[in-house]
Every structure is written in C-alpha cells, then in structure tokens.
Write a structure and sequence with these properties.
The chain is α+β, with helices and mostly antiparallel strands. Helices cover 49% and strands 12% of the residues. The protein has a 4-stranded antiparallel beta sheet with strand order 6-7-9-8, with helices on both faces. Strands 10, 11, 12 and 13 form a 4-stranded antiparallel beta sheet that branches. Strands 1-2-3 form a 3-stranded antiparallel beta sheet, sandwiched between helices. The relative contact order is 0.08.
Length: 459
Amino acid sequence: MRSTPQSSSEEYHPLVLFEQRCRTIYRLACKHGAEYALRLEGERATPESFRRACHLGFAEAQILILEELIKIQDSRKELDVKLKSAKKSRDKLASKEVKQQIGLENLKEHIVRRLADSIAWHLIGGQNYIARRLCHRESSRPTLKASNLASVLNFVNEYNDSNPLGFALISDITSFVQLGDVLLAGENGLQIIELKEGVKNHESMSVISDNLLTEAEDEQIRKILDGHPLNDQIRRILRQHARATQATTLLNTGAGIDPATGDRVQIPDVYHVEEHYFDEIQKLLTHLGPKKDWAFTVLEGGLYIGAYKGVWRRFGPSLLRRTAFEEVNDVYPVASLREGLAEALVEPIFVKPLNEDQIFDIAFRRVAVFILLRLDQMLSLYSGTSARAEFLSVKQSRKQQEKCRAHKLFMHEGQCVRISHPTGTSFLLGDGVRTRVVFDTLTPRCVVAMSASDSTSDV
C-alpha cells in the first residue's frame, strides 16, 4: 500500500508538502543516529559515535521544527483575525471555512510538537515518570515570537556545537516539557535551564543575587520585597528557579519534591519490564492492502484492536464494540491511536517501532487504528496477583471523583476501581491506566502487574 497521495486531485492538498517536511524532520529526529553513526567513525561505530550522530540529527530537526511552529502560529494569528471579521459580519459560510483552516493548523501543530517530543523522549530514555515530572499540564503552549526565543536559540546552538555528547532542547517547541527554557541532557544528567533577558529580568536577578534569596527564605523575601517595584517579577523568577531545581534534583537522585504537585516523591529503584503489543499493531497494518481494508485482533485482558482504511475507517468503532459486546454498545469508549497526537504525556507515535509509512498513514488519517479496552475483562487479571481489585458503588464512586477533581478516575459504567494490597495500602485506579494501555501500547497484563505492585501505584 503506497502511503503518500499521488493522484493529481491530491497533488495540491494542503497537507502534502507539510507531510514531506515532517518526514524530513522525522528522519532527522528518529533515524539519523542509526544511519550516520558509521560515517562518523569510518565504519567503526561506537556508542559515542551513535550518540553524536543522534545529536546532529536532533539539532537540525530542532531548527526545522521551530520554523514550522512559527509558520503555524503566524498563520493561526491571521486566521483568528479573519474569523473575528466573519463573525462580526455574520458570514456563517466564511466562519465555517476559517474554522476548518484553524483546525488544520491545530493538527499541524500537534504533529510538529510530537516530533519535538520524540527528541525529548530520547533524551529522557523513554521514561514516563520523567515526562510527568516535566509537565504541568498547561492547556496551551507559548507563542514563540513572544518568548525570549533569541537568547534560548543562541544558548542551545552554542551548547550543541561545543558538546557533541550532550544535547540542549528548546522546551517551548515540545508538548510536555513545561519547565524552564531548555531541557539539557549532559554529563551531569538532566538539567532544567532558565534563561532571562530584558531589563526588568536582569534587575530582578540582580536583587536575587545580591540578597542570596531562595524560595525557602520566606521571611527574608517578605522584608526585601515589600513595596519593591519588581515584587511580582522577582517572585515569579524565584518560583521558576525553585521548580527547575526541584525537578533536576528529583530526576537525577530519584527523591525530592515534585514541582507539579508539591508532594514529596520517592521514585522506586525496582521497575517492571514494560511489555508492549507493537507487533500486533504491525501485523494488522501489514494485512491491509489493495483488496483488504480492515483487520482486527483481540488480546488477553480485554484489548480489542482494529486497523481500517478507506470507507471502513467510519465503521471501525462500531465494529469493535460489536466484537467486544456482541452488540453495538455506543456508550463504551473506543480510542484512536492517532488521538495520541493531542496527548502530551504519552509516548509519541513517531518513536514507536513501526515503519515510516505506517506511522505517517496513521498520523495523516489514511489508516485508522482503533482500540477498545474492556475494563471488566482487564480486572480479571488481578486474580493472578497479590492485589485485589473491586468496583465501588456508583454513589461511592461519585463521592470519590468529587474528592479527586484534579485527577480523572478510571470509571466503568459509573463505578471506579479500588486496588488493595495485602499490606493494607489501597488506591483508586486513575484514567492514566487506560492512557498507558491505549497510547503507550502497554499490554493490559503489564499495566496490571505495575499497579498491583506496592511500589508503583502511579502507573
């Protein structure tokens, strides 16, 4: 199955050239190391030459990502003006067309940011717990032209040119790195770098430096800042500095304050081996062809997966529900693997072990992979662990969800699930369990094993 649209009617589709540019970025961000490592060492590849080759690709990809994001943000700014004008003149047709164009630009941004996330994912070793510490779940990302882009770009370029075994990534081009201006992976591990420019920021930093202020010295801060013209600015810088310091300490020592929640965290030393179902998805995609537009499979633990192309993409969710329930249960959630483009805290599709055409077919809607997870079947897997899973009543579940407004609970027909350990500890399953199965493509058995462990309730 050819992936890139070739017909004359599609030749000028607005996404064709964009996809070509994204494929270039993808090869630089995800394939450059393997392809160029040998060239750096005269056919004698080493771990160092591989890392240098990866970082060379990252650096070039980072610039291309930045250029794409600026174009997208400029275009969306113009479209916002057009939409405002269309609404003012009550032109419904024009409003609809502009909204469609804005939707297209939003899609482009999701794809480009996930390519940037792919670089970040490599830097953090694909560790979900690290990604969570770097993300504050902000609903929007900064406008690049309004940020201190020049100083950040100057810093990362200088660092990357002089440190081939390290890499500095611009935080604002990613979806989930929401701490600091730069995520730096170097000889001292991961670091969060804050860069300040502008007269007020420099004056504020001078006040902080002169008085050796830290966030913990509340009384000293109050005395100095009461009535100070840069009060708000200094406090903001101190908060940013404290969060960056907390994150760096936590990520490199495994213990400390989570900057996102303020809670003290101890990252366990023992990790479960992650078991994925990549092979099953690849088999389904391989089965698609000129004469076959669909394929599906069912995995142990109530995981129903279907791959569809052509007109069958419309019927995928209904077909999976009929397979799972022997009837069309329209209420039960069915997710598309492509929806992960809009999720910050999941493994980017671009780093999954699928081939380039398969990845871009999914990202650009030519192929749909739908996934249905039956919670009731997944919970049966707990019987093989030391933990016990039980549904709370609808009334109890409603109360628990009210208490946990900051965290969405994993619900099944209005009921949440409590996991209890022999030690007496218990917790409620969060909706992150579904996310890890669907978008991180972990098997239900793997996620159950992780949540059944006393040391890793936060999967």
